[in-house]
Amino acid sequence: MKKIECDIYRDLFPNYIKDKISDTTKKFVDNHLNECTSCKSIMITLICIINSLIIKSTSYYPIKNNHSTFG
Ligand SMILES: [Zn+2]
Fold first, then answer.
1. What is the C-alpha to C-alpha distance for residues 37 and 1, in angstroms, rounded to an integer?
2. C-alpha 13 to ligand 1 mean position (Å)
3. DSSP of 27-58
4. Which residues are found with C-beta within 5 Å of the ion, ligand 1?
5. CB 13, CB 45: distance < 8 Å
6. Which residues have CB under 8 Å from 32's CB, separation 6+?
7. Do 26 and 33 touch, CB atoms closer than 8 A?
8. 20 to 30 A from 16, CA-CA: which of 22, 54, 61, 69?
9. What is the Å distance from ligand 1's center to 43 Cα?
10. What is the pLDDT of residue 3?
């Protein structure tokens, strides 16, 4: 079940990931993420999206290339 509180936190997520919020706000978000699994999964998804955008925009740099046989 989604709480109104969650909406408030989710609005902060992009800035949280970009490190554009104050330490105090960050602690509030951290606390909420520890309690709220649905917000946590949204946060993880956001981080993945943002990371993939960063990788795309810097694709000419060699990205860590593991030669281990994965999978
Ligand atoms: Zn939540």
1. 11
2. 11
3. HHHHHHHHH-HHHHHHHHHHHHHHHHHHHHHT
4. 6, 36, 39
5. no
6. 5, 6, 9, 39
7. no
8. 61
9. 10
10. 82
How many angstroms does the Cα of residue 36 sit away from the middle of ligand 1?
Answer: 5
d(CA 34, CA 54): 26
Q: What is the DSSP letter of 14?
A: H
53 C-alpha to ligand 1 centroid (Å): 25
pLDDT in tens, the chain (71 residues): 568 999 999 999 999 998 999 999 999 999 999 999 999 999 999 999 988 887 777 666 555 555 655 55
User: Contact at 8 Å (CB) between 12 and 21?
Assistant: yes
